[in-house]
Amino acid sequence: MKTKIIFSAIAALLFFNANAQSSYAGANFTYGFPIAGTALGTISTSNFSTNTGSYEIVKGSFGTGFNVGSYFGYSMNSNLGFEIGVNYLWGKKYNFEDNRDYGSGSYDNVKDEVYVSSFRISPAFRIGFEQGKFHPYMRAGMTFGLFNKIVDNTTETSKGPLTLGADICESRFEFSKGNSIGFTGAIGVNYSISGNMYLFAEITNYLMSWAPQKGELLKNNLNGNDQLPTINVSDKQFEFVDHYDRTATIDTNAPTPSLKHYFPMSSLGVTIGMHFDFGK
User: Fold this and answer.
1) Domain at 2-212+261-277, CATH class
2) Residue 55: φ, ψ to 5°
């Protein structure tokens, strides 16, 4: 229902843009940097023969990365407007690693490549001022993250002390479902280049987090052989919830319940784009 309401609002705003004499639109490109980041994973090396190792935290936010978007708005007067922006996030790829050396030629190395994608809709108010060719403005509103997805590609290379070669297991895990709600804001300036056409630059921020509702193992190849058909549903599908009760028996043909985990999706970015005023 929430998604239907948002898309109905977009359709209504597009109608106003086509008919109102004080509408505007634009397209932009953003790179977001992490803010309010947390520890996403680790890079570690352990040698159990010598009892030594090194360990490092990988900090960041899954809201980091490239964004492409557009917006459509209606100016209620010369200084105040309301708009709806849409953008798609291609998240930065984070790499984690756990390398273990057990001695006697035995080892286990696990590498993860994790990234996020998200489609965001942001209704917001814009306050602007005209200063010759420069039109400074600020914007504030809500943002709704839809169709969020985390992808975790894992490669595990392992070898036992009595084996001649190493085993390589390649897997792909996806976390999805669950919408996110947060806040967005920006401070920027439009520069008039021709009539109602402007170049603009702004500092943009998103403050939000997201908890997936579903997790699924989509790939599991051992030395090139597909293992998915041999894995129980309970070991490759998960449902993330706020509460569950543990039972004595496990239904291997049903997803396994697990508690939700909230991932950071905030960012502070630099945005450039084109802005168009209609009806002036």
Assistant:
1) mainly beta
2) -140, 135
